[in-house]
Amino acid sequence: MRPRSVHVRLPMAVAAALALACLAISPASAAGTTLAMDCQATPPIGSAQKFDLSAGVDATAPDTVAAGGALSVRLATEPMTVPGSVGGYTVKSIKNITLKAPVPSNATVTGARLTGGSGIGSGTPAVSVSGGEIVMSVPGPISGGQTFTLPVLDLDLTAGVSGTAIETRLSGSSYSSPGLTFTASVPILFVTVSVPTSCYPSPNPVLTSTAVD
């Protein structure tokens, strides 16, 4: 019994760790802002695994807006690819992708909507505003080896008082307060291991800045 237990559990832990340690979903092009994400995967067996992830974002907003005026901000992530296999183990899919951004200070959100997106699976993406955060949810699943593009997020804002810029950036400051989360599915022997992953931007650059006159 003991040799059997070692034989089954160690590959499961190693595969989960390898899959997530190398699941650095990289931008397919270098345009826009490249965000460096500090991530931690928590496999059901074994210790948490830390890794880096990079994600490209094209962000647009007006340079200036009048106090009390309306403005629009667009955040678009660049195409990304999920590895099909890592270290000899198959990455079946990723799912339940959640990307968060704080509501910009000195602004009020009047509308938020998603458009486009490709290769993101059968689930329906959604966006909501809650607790001072704008939350994009993409159920997936997105298969291993698949190149995909998340939906474009368009925000309608009303500017606050003059003198304070309206800045957009991603949420996240730690593994327990992440800006990006997802779950990877890794089949090992006769079971599929689900590996939750939490990421936050480090550093966390400003994506857009609009001066309020």
- In the CATH hierarchy, what is the architecture at level 2? Sandwich
N→C terminal distance:
73 Å
Order of H and E elements: HEEEEEEEEEEEEEEEEEE
Q: Mind describing the biggest β-sheet?
A: 11 strands, antiparallel
CATH fold description: Immunoglobulin-like
Overall, the morphology is elongated
> Based on DSSP secondary structure assignment, what is the total number of beta strands?
18
CATH class: Mainly Beta
Strand content: over 45%
Fraction in helix? under 10%
The whole-number mean of residue pLDDT values reads 83
Low-confidence segments, given as residue ranges, are 1-31
Helix count, DSSP H or I runs of 4 or more residues: 1
Structural class, by secondary structure, is mainly beta
What is the alpha-carbon Rg in Å? 19 Å
- Tally of distinct domains: 1
Signal peptide: 1-30
Protein name: Cyclodehydratase
Keywords: Signal
